[in-house]
User: Which sequence fits this backbone?
């Protein structure tokens, strides 16, 4: 990682996507330059971070085409020419799409996910595919079949999960933008522990077509970025109705970028009722996380927000319900991985029936966490257990939706810490699935209710100097409200710090690594 | 194989046991695209699915990331079918996943409907050749997707057991199906085999009238799984059922039911037990063989399909489809029989000849029902039989009606009309054109007839005497001679009238 400190402060890679987009538009920068800078950065640091499972061989060619089109005066979308990293859960017809699983190693889909097709249509530059927990099952990216991703703030620590690759890529300046997917917090929790911004849109706001399904009723694709405005710009590209996804909404969405700009410009939260969810804080939360959260609330109050405490008593059952619904749907969604049509095939010694081949393939192809959840889900759906488990969990889901309705009758947005702790160490919770599951305690309710939620940086925890995140939630369909409030809060926080949070990252191009940390990285875990 | 299975005499079996039936009929809808994907539907009219795995999309193949989208036309067809079966249409119905591993099932789950089907509680009236009618209660009709097709290579039997390897063709995967499930049918007794055939035939008539399926059983557009169990007479206890599959003609439905009754009866009478299982029907040997054991405890881990929204057809849509329904076959038959004034026997004659549509069209073209029936089931059916073709292919209802009109106006005798019909069938034109060309008009000029009669009477004075003595039947000889002289082109009744008149005229 010695290269980290050698990059100059006004390096291309330190720029936000919105700034890159402006400079591309004005002709000050070319997409080839921008793309090359990020490819160089990947080459330089990804050996340590391991955010990418695959780096595109076509990125520069695509960038040159966009530059060519721009020279010819083509009307291009706002983010045209800006590179983007894509979580490996999304199908890309020019790159392997493995969802972090051995069972899909090397599989190149014959089609693009709708969000990927939209990226291409808007002429963003796909940089590559990012690492993730296998089939998005995990909160640390340690469950990837292809090795863990390291947190750029401390390589011995996890980058969150399941979308640790996308968050780390953005936090380590390997990409200005990334796509993630969030089933129980896989966008927001990694954002919290890497000092980045991650948005889980309203369920149905972004197409799931081509997103390899974990739990169909919970999955949602969304942006991972370093600023609220960048998330909004990317959301504007990927959002909207898709006829290939029956659960996709037909809403006419407003411009999220406009919403974010308005929030940043106003600097005021006057008239905004900010609900603090009692159940999403307190015991079990790291002291530094709670402290930064309290400060963020004070800051919002001083900007005119009315802070109200709201209670959502059913939230205490959220994790239990989630860990029945998710495995149930996943056990069915993952049944297609049977070696018949695609992916890994393992022939048992001495041959065997098709069932033997399926079993041998799944035995070798799936990791332990995937097997654990398939077994859980199969059990929960079994005759005689369905009502007690899956049925009850769905009822809890209804109660949680009611709690949200009631909370949103008293507040315009709800806030909580985006994760209960800062990044923990690699391996720390690997042998304790229940401890791992608790990482998503604050993010899961939004998935169960289908409401949008954002994780954004709220400062470094005093005790370990690692990033903490705040979660902002809004009623379904009100994603724009999150961008407005989020951009206002982001501006207020950066004002109070006098800089951005990410600029304090040890790997930031303008910030040479502290010697002791650099030394630790040299001998650090790989 | 079960060629060695003991069978009990059918009548004997019915003496000892009461058969209880149930049917699951799968109808392949003929929509342009599949149930959940834009792939072309091999069950659509004129589709060619001969090249394996050519009518597929990522959805049919269950590729990672792919999602189903419901075909709206399939929903409309299913609602129409539900209505035609007299079912209630659910304001909200839901798709569910039926989970099981099988290589012809791309996702290893089938999207079907489980506890919330689109249509339920219907009634189909079935009429047997002997005129008996049965009311068959429909429990439900639900939508689902078909699976792909496996070809087992290398085994002796073409079955999976013993095969070296198997090939999968996913063209059929995702073809829209409606599964129609009956309630338990009791009381069919000796008519059970014929009832089974008549029920499937009634379903076929309905889907053909609706135009929602190609309905070719030999192509699998319409498939019948027949459940049957025997209940010992007087026991009031239900027997263990078998489910016979692969029955792909109306004739086979009848034969398979008869066979299963005889097979089960032999086993039960010998003190054996029926195994709850699927049975495969073998058309060539006319037998069934054991398939997969089937248990009520099969656990498909059904749960609501999270990738699809509930199906919530508007009241307006349901009413629109209801108003566009063709008349139910049973109602139509009743209406026609009544308006035509046919006896049971006459009407059954038309039905059994499969000429209902032809007679109806001929009546619509102006013929009397009796004449229309007489011509279609008589002379036309006879000629068709000789030529080994369908009667409807010989002549149009309009031409038959025109022919009947010529007879009724007295322009043609029946005998002449048969000649005209031959001319029409030979392509010589319409009946009036044939009459013109062949010069077959009835001689209605009394002068010509009187001359011929006088000549005949004069040459047969003995006959004249007899007539004058009141032995009117003797006139026959004169009438015959006159008809011969007129080359048959005279109205025999008029000739008779004139003969009597001339003979008695002093």
Assistant:
């Amino acid at each position: 990682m010695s290269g980290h400190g050698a990059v100059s402060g006004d390096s291309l890679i330190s720029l936000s996507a919105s700034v890159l987009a402006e400079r591309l538009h004005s002709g000050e920068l070319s997409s080839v330059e921008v793309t090359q800078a990020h490819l160089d950065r990947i080459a330089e640091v990804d050996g340590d971070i391991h955010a990418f499972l695959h780096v595109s061989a076509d990125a520069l060619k695509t960038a040159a085409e966009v530059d060519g089109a721009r020279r010819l005066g083509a009307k291009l979308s706002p983010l045209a020419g800006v590179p983007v990293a894509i979580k490996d859960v999304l199908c890309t017809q020019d790159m392997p799409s493995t969802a972090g699983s051995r069972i899909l190693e090397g599989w190149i889909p014959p089609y693009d996910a709708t969000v990927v097709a939209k990226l291409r249509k808007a002429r963003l530059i796909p940089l590559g595919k990012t690492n993730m927990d296998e089939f998005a099952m995990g909160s640390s990216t340690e469950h990837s079949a292809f090795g863990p991703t390291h947190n750029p703030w401390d390589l011995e620590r996890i980058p969150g999960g399941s979308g640790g690759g996308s968050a780390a890529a953005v936090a380590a300046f390997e990409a200005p933008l990334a796509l993630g997917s969030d089933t129980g917090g896989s966008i927001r929790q990694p954002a919290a522990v890497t000092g980045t911004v991650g948005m889980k849109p309203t369920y149905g706001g972004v197409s799931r077509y081509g997103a390899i399904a974990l739990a169909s009723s919970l999955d949602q694709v969304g942006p991972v970025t370093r600023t609220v405005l960048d998330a909004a710009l990317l959301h504007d590209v990927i959002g909207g109705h898709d006829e290939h996804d029956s659960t996709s909404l037909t809403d006419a969405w407003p411009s999220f970028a406009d919403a974010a700009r308005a929030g940043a410009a106003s600097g005021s939260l006057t008239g905004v009722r900010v609900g603090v969810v009692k159940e999403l804080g307190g015991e079990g939360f790291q002291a530094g996380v709670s402290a930064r959260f309290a400060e963020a609330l004070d800051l919002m109050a001083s900007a005119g927000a009315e802070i109200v405490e709201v209670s959502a008593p059913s939230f205490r059952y959220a994790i239990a319900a989630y860990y029945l619904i998710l495995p149930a749907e996943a056990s069915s969604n993952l049944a297609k991985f049977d070696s018949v049509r695609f992916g890994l095939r393992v022939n048992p010694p001495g041959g065997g029936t098709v069932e033997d081949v399926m079993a041998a393939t799944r035995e070798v192809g799936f990791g332990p966490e995937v097997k654990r959840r398939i077994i859980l889900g199969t059990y929960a759906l079994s005759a005689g257990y369905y009502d007690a488990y899956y049925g009850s969990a769905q009822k809890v889901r209804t109660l949680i939706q009611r709690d949200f309705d009631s909370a949103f009758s008293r507040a315009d947005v709800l806030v909580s810490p985006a994760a209960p702790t800062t990044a923990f160490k690699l391996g720390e919770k690997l042998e304790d699935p229940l401890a791992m599951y608790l990482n998503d305690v604050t993010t899961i309710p939004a998935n169960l209710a289908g409401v949008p939620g954002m994780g954004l940086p709220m400062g470094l925890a005093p005790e370990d100097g690692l990033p903490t995140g705040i979660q902002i939630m809004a009623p379904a369909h009100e994603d724009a409200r999150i961008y407005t409030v989020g951009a206002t809060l982001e501006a207020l926080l950066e004002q109070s710090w006098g800089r951005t949070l990410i600029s304090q990252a040890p790997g930031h191009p303008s910030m040479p690594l502290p010697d002791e940390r650099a030394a630790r990285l040299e001998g650090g875990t790989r | 194989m079960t060629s060695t299975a003991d069978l009990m005499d059918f009548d004997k079996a019915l003496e000892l046991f009461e058969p209880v039936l149930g049917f699951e009929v799968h109808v392949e809808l003929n929509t342009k695209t599949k149930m959940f994907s834009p792939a072309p539907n091999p069950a659509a009219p004129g589709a060619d699915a001969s090249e394996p795995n050519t009518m597929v999309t990522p959805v049919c193949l269950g590729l990672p990331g792919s999602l189903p989208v419901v075909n709206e036309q399939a929903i409309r067809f299913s609602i129409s079918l539900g209505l035609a079966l007299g079912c209630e249409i659910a304001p909200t119905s839901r798709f569910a996943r039926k989970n099981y591993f099988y290589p012809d099932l791309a996702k290893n789950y089938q999207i079907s409907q489980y506890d919330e089907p689109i249509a339920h509680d219907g009634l189909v009236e079935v009429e047997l050749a002997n005129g008996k009618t049965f009311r068959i209660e429909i429990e439900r009709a639900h939508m689902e997707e078909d699976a792909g097709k496996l070809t087992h290579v290398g085994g002796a039997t073409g079955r999976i057991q013993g095969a070296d390897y198997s090939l999968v063709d996913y063209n059929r995967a995702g073809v829209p199906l409606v599964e129609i499930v009956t309630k338990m049918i009791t009381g069919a007794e000796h008519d059970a085999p014929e009832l089974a055939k008549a029920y499937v035939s009634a379903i076929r008539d309905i889907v053909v009238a609706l135009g929602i399926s190609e309905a070719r059983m030999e192509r699998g557009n319409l498939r019948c799984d027949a459940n049957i169990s025997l209940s010992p007479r007087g026991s009031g206890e239900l027997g263990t059922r078998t489910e016979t599959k692969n029955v792909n003609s109306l004739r086979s439905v009848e034969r398979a039911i008869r066979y299963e009754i005889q097979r089960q009866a032999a086993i039960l009478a010998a003190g054996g037990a029926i195994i709850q299982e699927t049975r495969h029907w073998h058309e060539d040997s006319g037998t069934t063989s054991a398939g997969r054991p089937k248990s009520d405890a099969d656990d498909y881990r059904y749960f609501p399909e999270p990738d699809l929204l509930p199906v919530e057809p508007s009241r307006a849509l349901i009413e629109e489809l209801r108003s566009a329904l063709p008349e139910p076959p049973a109602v139509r038959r009743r209406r026609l029989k009544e308006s035509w004034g046919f006896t049971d026997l006459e009407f059954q004659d038309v039905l059994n000849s499969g000429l209902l549509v032809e007679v109806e069209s001929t009546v619509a073209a102006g013929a009397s029902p009796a004449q229309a029936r007489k011509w279609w089931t008589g002379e036309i059916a006879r000629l068709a039989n000789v030529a080994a073709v369908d009667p409807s292919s010989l002549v149009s209802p309009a031409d038959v009606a025109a022919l009947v009109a010529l007879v009724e106006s007295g322009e043609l005798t029946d005998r002449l009309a048969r000649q005209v019909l031959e001319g029409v069938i030979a392509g010589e034109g319409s009946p009036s054109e044939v009459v013109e060309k062949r010069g077959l008009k009835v001689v209605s000029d009394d002068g010509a007839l009187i001359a011929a009669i006088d000549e005949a009477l004069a040459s047969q004075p003995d006959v004249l005497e007899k007539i004058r003595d009141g032995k009117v039947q003797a006139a026959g000889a004169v009438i015959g001679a006159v008809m011969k002289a007129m080359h048959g082109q005279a109205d025999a009744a008029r000739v008779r009238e004139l003969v009597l008149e001339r003979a008695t005229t002093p």
